[in-house]
Amino acid sequence: MLQQSCCCLLFFIYPFINTVQLSFENADSTRFVGFKNYQAIFTDPDMLSVLKNNLLWLVFGTLLTVGLGLVIAVLVDRLKVEGLVKSALFIPMAISMVSASIIWRLVYLYRPPDQTQVGLLNAILVFFKLPPQPWLVNTSVNTFALIAVYVWMWTGFCVVVFSAALKGIPDEIVEAARIDGANRWVLFWRVIVPMISPTIGVVTTTMIINILKTFDIVYVMTGGNYNTDVVAVEFYRQLFTFGDYGLASALAVLLTLAILPVMYLNIRRIQLEEGGQA
Amino acid sequence: MIGEQVQQPLIPALATARRRPRSRRRAWLRRLSEQVITVIALLIAVVWSLPTLGLLISSFRPPSLISTTGWWTALLPPWQFTLQNYVQVITAQGLGRAFINSVIIAVPSTILPALIGSFAAFAFAWMRFPARNTIFFLIISLQIIPLQIALVPLLQIFTNIGLTGQYAAVWLAHTAFGLPFAIFLLRNFFAALPRDLLEAAYVDGASNFRLFWTIVLPLSLPALASLVIFQFLWVWNDLLVALIFLGGNPQNAPMTLTIASLVGSYGENDQVLTAAAFLSMALPLVIFFALQRYFIRGILAGSVKG
Lengths: 278, 306
Prior knowledge:
CATH architecture of chain A: Orthogonal Bundle
Number of strands of chain A: 0
Oligomer: heterodimer
GO biological process, one term (chain A): transmembrane transport
InterPro entries (chain A): MetI-like, MetI-like_sf, UgpAE/MalFG_permease
Family (chain A): Belongs to the binding-protein-dependent transport system permease family.
Number of helices of chain A: 13
Radius of gyration of chain A: 23 Å
Number of domains of chain B: 2
Membrane topology (chain A): Multi-pass membrane protein
CATH class of chain A: Mainly Alpha
CATH topology of chain A: MetI-like fold
Structural class of chain B: mainly alpha
Shape of chain B: flat
Keywords (chain A): Cell membrane, Membrane, Transmembrane, Transmembrane helix, Transport
Radius of gyration of chain B: 25 Å
């Protein structure tokens, strides 16, 4: 059984070392080029725009999923419709990002202003006498349009996890705060948030890691075109479209480096919990 | 429905005693605000469901209508629905074949990590060997490492031994990538089993292997169910691994991959895409509704402990 766990390690550790090595070599891995690939990532304007998009994803994707998840979880807590609302939010978790992308292509569908809009969002705009937008092509909104799909998919996850944590807050504490005159707002910030802060930490790190690796939504909806490219899609393009193993590996290494601090926090947390149990 | 049990106050009498002094007016205000919140919550649920509903309705509409009117117009008479899109997508677009491929890929990719993971989890929970905890932490920290880091070298190895484009390549990759989570989830469950029970069996001369099959595994069925559902959905919905290892061989492509390439070649031709997307969602949705409890337990085990 020990061998199996070692096999599992080998499946990751050999590729890891290999990828780091490839990232210091040229496109077909025949020559050592030092930091040239990394330099390209941080100076090339196209690459910089990829990094900028990933940053937008990271900030807005994380804030929206965690924020909305927390607010909705608190809102529906102990309502009669709690189960129903949570199910509705949670269903997107079960479907693939490919299907989600097709669902949202229908929402964002754009027709020139003189035609009937068949996309839901543009139909709503037209209903309010606003000009329809090509959501996936317009470079000032398209990254946000893609982030919205991610938020739609993952808010349900956050709601379910937060909801379970809320059930763990003793009723006495909430009641005591209410008797002391705390309104919903004070209750939320002074009682609920501090009490479930470990869960908020876990959900936030999960979202950060997830979002850094975002691939499917961008790949299916825009293919990384119209200035929506992110690191994981660019990695794929470098690998298969341009056959540049060096640059692709350097992108993968960067992705891992970005995740390392989050990983460290997670391991610390698990170690603390394990220590508490013993 | 997702329904956890609402926690009862520890001392019920005390809770009611506290509630009594509240004036009737405040209670009325509270009921009103509860109704307002219920309406807001339901509104959120509706907004969240609209996109999926749009897909479902569109997939049953005749192609000529899909491209000229919004799906919401189908809600009013005259109702015009058809199965034509489904017939076309299954027969002409190879989605039937892709569905079978998805099954062929997902079943071994679910069973293998569950089996190997439970062996490893047993070792980590109940057997003593040097550096046990260090190795366990290393493995669970692998959960977080992005897949991308392993893809290039794996692709090179698989290509060298002729696995690229074969089902086995995806089985191996999904097993390896799924193991850290499997080991993490199961070890925590195994470790919580009653120590006395295992020790008694051990004293009676049961081998580790026997302990595992006759005591640990039967007692851990709920955890195994969570894991299997999770892994199955993960593999069923995966695009990246399939794209990398099967991208060059459409014969073996799963549904996600086939649909992704339909998007590329059809673009605006939505009658094909809507039916295809709904077909690929059908199985996960059935699993989700039938086994929601286990699905959610798996999520909670992975993120909140206890």
